[in-house]
Amino acid sequence: MTESPETRSTESRAIALRLAALSHPARIEILKHLSASRCCSCREVVDHLDLAQSTVSQHLKILVEAGLVRFEADRQRSRYAVDHAALAGVSASLTQLVDSCCAARR
After folding, report:
1. 79-95: per-residue pLDDT in tens?
2. Which of 15, 19, 38, 42 ranks highest by number of CB atoms within 10 Å?
3. What is the rounded distance in angstroms from the CA atom of residue 92 to the CA atom of residue 42?
4. How many angstroms separate the CA atoms of 44 and 27, rounded?
5. What average pLDDT does the segment 55-59 reach?
6. The whole model's pTM is what?
7. Which of 54, 51, 53 is nearest to 26 (CA)?
8. Radius of gyration over alpha carbons of the chain, in Å?
């Protein structure tokens, strides 16, 4: 079954959003830190990265909006965790993109 142009465009936008979220070094470091633990509060990420709380909050917001990090309200603290399936999906999408682009050169 062939995908419609609208479906391809929607998928391309979703991939672009996730890649854009990965395009900042602080967000990559946040993902690494979150991956090392089951979940973390914003304060724990701030303490680990030595960035301002507002900066970390903004980066976490971008990662959540891109679907790469899950957010849960936990009483007075927010808890964040990597969405491993979404991150694996980025890897698979990027691999597929590279393979399809490079196949034309073979």
Report:
1. 999 999 999 999 999 99
2. 42
3. 29
4. 14
5. 96
6. 0.85
7. 51
8. 16
